[in-house]
């Protein structure tokens, strides 16, 4: 077993797939940042709000005021340098740190594909993606023809985890046997040409989409692995992600996943891509190709690098199952829900009204959430318990500073999950100002009056 592992870790493969992946990844990130800046979302999401929701233990990570634009500029430059392979190690570390900081500035904006970019860019720190066809190799006049095979397989494994875990998360009774939340979302797409007033309104189509989405996610990594089914699988990757992009406002994620799955193709495909780009660059810049081509790339600290990547992969395999440590329905409590590749599984709406009470006199008043939160923040806060707790503490601190005495904070919260009738969500008798955030189960979340079977 150990000998087989050593053999695998020393097995070389052509560097082209990783090189093309680096280039496309960097360019996609550049475009994403430009798009975010162009739509003025930096100001809307990070500068205008009076208050920002934080991740537990990372409360020190906050927007930087107008310097947030500088942070985005640094992230853009780092992504561009990653794409062209210039000072690659510094560039990918800078991109990982700046992008992850952006992701963590406000929990309101959490999306699975932001998390995916962070973990992928962390993995890329340890991969020789600049081994050839890069500014680094051009400057050093040296490129590597082959790299360890595991470096490419690690990206394939990460992509496989994302897809497969998203698929098994759909193995629940709401998704498969009630077609929710698709049954709620799809009829609203009546304005789509040809299919909006026909297919989108049909219940059988809602079930077909639910089941096909599950089957797609659990099978596509394996279909991409085998040469005979690879082009067939890639066709479905394109169709699936383009269709979901048409249906839902999920930004660049579909295109990032389409581009990422190209790494499953053999080296000859990527060598043709590189050759095409070289021809275009030669026509524009007349590049000098006096580069020494070395046979195989070798790591300076191979054991450390392999060890870090192995631990990283183990974390990715285990972390999504942390929800098993908590009681009650996951979709209801959301304890262990994030960072687990549970993509678009819920339609959850709520209303949370906060009451500020003087514990000595019993006098009280209600809070208008619009005085403190943006519409997006209020929407996200209304049905997520950690948001509700953090906001309660913010209100308690705010009114204490204003001079209010003996402050207690209570909430009347009602939530509807996947089309069910609204029901009480938080124990209205609990003073949330006294409750502390932790990784422990939040006992002040009221029980879910139904049962969702599945993983």
> Biggest sheet: strands side by side, in what order?
5-4-6-7
Give the topology string: H per helix, E per strand: HEHHHHHHEHHHHHHHEHHEEHHEE
Helix content: 40-55%
Gap from first CA to last CA: 32 Å
Computed CA radius of gyration, to the nearest angstrom: 25 Å
Tell me the total number of β-strands: 7
- Contiguous uncertain segments of 5+ residues: none
Taken from the alpha-carbon principal axes, the silhouette is globular
| DSSP helical segment count | 18
Q: What structural class do you assign from the helix and strand content?
A: alpha+beta
Average pLDDT: 93
Describe this structure in words.
It is a single chain. The chain has a 4-stranded antiparallel sheet. A 3-stranded mixed sheet has the order 1-2-3. The mean pLDDT is 93. The two termini are 32 Å apart. The protein is globular and about 85 Å long. The chain has helices at 2-9, 16-38, 41-47, 68-84, 88-104, 112-124, 135-140, 149-169, 173-177, 182-185, 203-225, 227-247, 253-260, 267-285, 302-318, 330-333, 375-381, 385-401, and strands at 12-14, 142-148, 292-296, 348-358, 364-366, 407-417, 423-424. It is 52% helix and 9% strand. Among the domains are: 2-169 and 266-322, no CATH class; 347-434, no CATH class. It is of the alpha+beta class and 455 residues long.
Structural topology:
Blueprint: H1 2-9, E1 12-14, H2 16-38, H3 41-47, H4 68-84, H5 88-104, H6 112-124, H7 135-140, E2 142-148, H8 149-169, H9 173-177, H10 182-185, H11 203-225, H12 227-247, H13 253-260, H14 267-285, E3 292-296, H15 302-318, H16 330-333, E4 348-358, E5 364-366, H17 375-381, H18 385-401, E6 407-417, E7 423-424
Parallel strand pairs: 2-3
Antiparallel strand pairs: 1-2, 4-5, 4-6, 6-7
Helix pairs in contact: 2-4, 2-13, 2-14, 4-5, 5-6, 6-8, 8-11, 8-15, 11-12, 12-13
